[in-house]
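[agent] plan:
  1. take the single chain provided in the ticket
  2. run structure prediction with default settings
  3. attach structure tokens to the ticket
  4. add a short note for the reviewer (M.T.)
[agent] executing step 1
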Amino acid sequence: MATVEHAIGEIDVVELLESVGRWPVGTIGTVVHDLGEWKQIEVSDDRGAMLDLISALEPKLRLLAKHGS
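[agent] step 2 finished; step 3 output follows
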């Protein structure tokens, strides 16, 4: 049986599998720009205020929630 890969796209919620800048492994963010293999991710506080905008390669991210799911 084949497994289905879920490509990470805009508005998906992701978790960092490697640190990016000051953000450690496990940081959660929302993809705001899908640039192919690179994703631009907004890191926000618990009230929704943007703390940072970072970029990461898709293989260094774990999909937590698909937009619309």
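[agent] step 4 note for reviewer: Residues 18 and 25 are 5 Å apart (CA to CA).
[agent] ticket updated
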